[in-house]
């Protein structure tokens, strides 16, 4: 991909997402979502591999279906109310369809089916963009209309996402698919208190991004693709091994790391709203994902790979420079829990 094409695509993705955070008109939202989808599709298909083409096709079709449903709902709302303002969308049927379409864009259950396949067919950095940046636009729209969304629908989707994200990752050996199921589970946590505490949902998303980004940067730097490759990570770079271990445990939500903070706040908010059963189901369902994260850390930190194999091993990473972004995000993913009282 030449420089001009890359510049146009990245500019379109960035500006379309930023415009969605500022606009108040549904047609503008739909236009920016379409620009975002059309710009992301060539990035996914860039490796010119049949699997990448398949992933780009699945991504395009799913996002187009979600955008079509969003346009249908907003047009129906405009016909009935004669206005296109986002904040004035109060009709239950319209808000339900819009919520479903945004859940499909965020890959929340039961509309999660496309994310693991697209992640597996993409590169590491493209998958990172799908799991983090591409969720900003639908999350922003949901935060804008959170007062009018169906509480029961969001709760059912949140619980289902955490369960499916945990169950789906149990039998995975591919790291990108495993992180995709992890994203589905964390999407459930994000939308669990969307209707009652949007600030906590925003905090959950920010902590998820700060934990996921260093994991993917480390995986990309060491060129690991499967869980089996984690066993030889210490031979490549012990520092990267420590980074992946800390951020993975933080992603699982274990104290005293930062990942414990938003889940603690979410469960506390749900219990204060007399939603004890739902909070208990979420907490128990998260044990599935926690088991997967602990299995990864066990393979990385507590086992040694056999040295009698004749396969070619990547002994040392050629990159000796440690980027500032990875170090900063790792510290954020591990050390921000004491700031919880001030938040």
From TrEMBL:
<feature type="transmembrane region" description="Helical">
    <location>
        <begin position="240"/>
        <end position="261"/>
    </location>
</feature>
<feature type="transmembrane region" description="Helical">
    <location>
        <begin position="203"/>
        <end position="219"/>
    </location>
</feature>
<feature type="transmembrane region" description="Helical">
    <location>
        <begin position="153"/>
        <end position="171"/>
    </location>
</feature>
<feature type="domain" description="NADH dehydrogenase subunit 2 C-terminal">
    <location>
        <begin position="290"/>
        <end position="343"/>
    </location>
</feature>
<keyword id="KW-0472">Membrane</keyword>
<dbReference type="InterPro" id="IPR050175">
    <property type="entry name" value="Complex_I_Subunit_2"/>
</dbReference>
<feature type="transmembrane region" description="Helical">
    <location>
        <begin position="322"/>
        <end position="340"/>
    </location>
</feature>
<keyword id="KW-0999">Mitochondrion inner membrane</keyword>
<feature type="domain" description="NADH:quinone oxidoreductase/Mrp antiporter transmembrane">
    <location>
        <begin position="24"/>
        <end position="288"/>
    </location>
</feature>
<protein>
    <recommendedName>
        <fullName>NADH-ubiquinone oxidoreductase chain 2</fullName>
        <ecNumber>7.1.1.2</ecNumber>
    </recommendedName>
</protein>
<dbReference type="GO" id="GO:0006120">
    <property type="term" value="P:mitochondrial electron transport, NADH to ubiquinone"/>
</dbReference>
<dbReference type="GO" id="GO:0008137">
    <property type="term" value="F:NADH dehydrogenase (ubiquinone) activity"/>
</dbReference>
<dbReference type="GO" id="GO:0005743">
    <property type="term" value="C:mitochondrial inner membrane"/>
</dbReference>
<keyword id="KW-0679">Respiratory chain</keyword>
<keyword id="KW-0830">Ubiquinone</keyword>
<keyword id="KW-0812">Transmembrane</keyword>
<dbReference type="Pfam" id="PF06444">
    <property type="entry name" value="NADH_dehy_S2_C"/>
</dbReference>
<dbReference type="InterPro" id="IPR003917">
    <property type="entry name" value="NADH_UbQ_OxRdtase_chain2"/>
</dbReference>
<feature type="transmembrane region" description="Helical">
    <location>
        <begin position="178"/>
        <end position="197"/>
    </location>
</feature>
<keyword id="KW-0496">Mitochondrion</keyword>
<comment type="similarity">
    <text>Belongs to the complex I subunit 2 family.</text>
</comment>
<feature type="transmembrane region" description="Helical">
    <location>
        <begin position="281"/>
        <end position="301"/>
    </location>
</feature>
<keyword id="KW-0813">Transport</keyword>
<keyword id="KW-0520">NAD</keyword>
<dbReference type="InterPro" id="IPR001750">
    <property type="entry name" value="ND/Mrp_TM"/>
</dbReference>
<comment type="function">
    <text>Core subunit of the mitochondrial membrane respiratory chain NADH dehydrogenase (Complex I) which catalyzes electron transfer from NADH through the respiratory chain, using ubiquinone as an electron acceptor. Essential for the catalytic activity and assembly of complex I.</text>
</comment>
<keyword id="KW-1133">Transmembrane helix</keyword>
<keyword id="KW-1278">Translocase</keyword>
<dbReference type="InterPro" id="IPR010933">
    <property type="entry name" value="NADH_DH_su2_C"/>
</dbReference>
<dbReference type="Pfam" id="PF00361">
    <property type="entry name" value="Proton_antipo_M"/>
</dbReference>
<keyword id="KW-0249">Electron transport</keyword>
<feature type="transmembrane region" description="Helical">
    <location>
        <begin position="6"/>
        <end position="30"/>
    </location>
</feature>
